[in-house]
Specification:
- The protein contains 4 helices and 10 strands.
- By secondary structure, the protein is an alpha+beta fold.
- The strands form 2 sheets. Strands 3, 4, 5, 6, 7, 8, 9 and 10 form an 8-stranded antiparallel beta sheet that branches.
- The protein is globular.
Length: about 170
Amino acid sequence: MAGPRRPGPHRRERRGVTITTWGDFADASPRLAERGARLLGVGVAYIATTAQDRSARVHPFTPLIGGGRLLAFIATHTAKYGNLLLDSRCAIHAILGKDDEEFMIIGRAVVSDDWATSMQAAVEARKIKMTSRDHVPFEFMIERVHWAVWEGLGTPDIRRRAERWQAPD
């Protein structure tokens, strides 16, 4: 199958960018990973990709977290599938939580269609009663993460509290 393959942990990409697995991110920043897992675990999030004409695209998708990995089944007939094969860079944004709580990942999508990954993704999908056909499992490798919440929403005392994490060099 064409497309990028799963890198090892802390693989250095072009332009000196380091990416890592969900598990390594969770080990390095457990509180931030817990927040992200909670927000991504609602069953739907959004993924931004780049189309062949270099324009930005946003698509709904179902992130699956398990075995220290951030996975998703991507249907082969969708624009996001073609876009991720052309350019693996992506941004994932969870649905907003209470107080407009946000969670975003910048990273790379890699085809991970080996048997073990397919089974791990299927186990996680079954937990939320997700079904899919004509799909390929992708793993999302993390470059950086952003989390924020708005405290005092709807009041004059509104303030934003935020945290960031970046994969170590």
